[in-house]
């Protein structure tokens, strides 16, 4: 893995020390007051959040905040973009430059930000419905172009926010509010879709595996090019309760029993079924010039100039 252009890559130990110093300083500043370690990264005025009890989104956000803090990114040059959905609320809760855009359009919005200001680290944090269902075309083309974006896709296999409708990732036979007799559509394997479309980094983790998920996020944040972390997450309200998982804890138990960590697995054979195993790990980590780099190098060569 190579660090993003212009960024020095710290060792794990350095990152941990940095986070500890940050926490100590904060603790000193408000001695006597009870402080949550994530306070500084969240918009407290937006809390309490809208998420249901047992939802996996809080864990996904916790891992993301922790990954950002431990990464080498300059947080003043980070932009977080979400679309619409329960997952899309992340942009509203995180205390960074963040944008809650329209449904399915987080990636084109993020692409515009990156092209207009290449110094930014642009992260898209959104759901399966937003990113690979209504927004599927933007997803594949940003991957094809290798636009330098980090995509965190929370896959809960349904449109959680609007009442548990089927999305393009809903497994075959799954009962949802729009598939009362079970789903008869073949679903997307999100990681496979990204890999086939040209992504340079692809990993999948459930929210049960918090350390691994956080580390994957750090790697993806620092990887130049189109990187994807697929986060498998419980949605007891929209999805789980229709499949014998009434609570988020039931789904976490399912992850514990069915999660199989296989780094380097053939991602195209790692589809997710209703009752089968969930293959997790890092599937893709390759080097390829980003869209901007490729274009810059190509134009310099053709036009005989060097704008670098
Ligand atoms: C153009 C448009 N169509 C439909 C909707 C309604 N809508 C809001 S969120 C959503 C689904 C979100 O699903 P997902 O991205 O998986 O997020 P989740 O709620 O599951 O986290 C839909 C269909 C909308 N807001 N805009
Ligand atoms: S509907 Fe599902 S995804 Fe949305 S907050 Fe509730 S549990 Fe989470
Ligand atoms: Mg969803």
pLDDT averaged residue by residue: 92
Quickly count the helices. Answer: 10
Query: What is the 3D form?
Result: globular
**Radius of gyration, Cα only, in angstroms?**
19 Å
- SSE sequence, one letter per element: HHEHEHEHHEEEHEHEHEEH
Oligomer: single chain
Bound molecules: thiamine diphosphate, iron/sulfur cluster, magnesium ion
CATH architecture of the largest domain: 3-Layer(aba) Sandwich
Which band does the percent of strand residues land in?
Answer: 15-25%
CATH class of the largest domain: Alpha Beta
Q: Which structural class do the helices and strands define?
A: alpha/beta
Helix content, binned percent: 25-40%
Overall number of structural domains: 2
Q: Note the gap between the termini.
A: 24 Å
